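Reading a protein record of the kind used here takes little practice once its layout is understood. The reader may check this reading against the record printed directly beneath this paragraph.
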Amino acid sequence: MDDRAVKRRDPGIAWALSIITLGIYFLFWYYLVNREMSDDFPDVEVNPLGAVAAVTIGGLIVVPPFVSTYNTGRRIRIAQRAAGVEPSCRPWVGLLLMFVLGLHVAYYQLKLNTVADEAAEPAAA
């Protein structure tokens, strides 16, 4: 059994639930992925509640949601590198996909799954 906090989730389901629940699942997902990366990787510095606050009430100032989304992509890239995975997450792609029906959720989860899969590999061997 792996002891990694980063969990594998279906990117399409994470995205669909974010849409169907009018963003409620997104906030839950956003908190979890930031907390999981923080728990697993000491190089990833993030306050998960702060990240959620940035994409919610930070929207009143306009800029914080975009900065937080970009920084989450950076954290995923750091987690990929730390897990021994080729860092393929591009924060700017996530930022752009944020404007396309919130597809950054699926993109970021797809990239996080590479971290979760790497953690599960030794257990399967």
Q: What stands out?
A: The chain has a mean pLDDT of 92. DSSP finds six helices and no strands in the chain. Residues 11-118 form one domain. Residues 104-124 form the longest helix (21 residues).
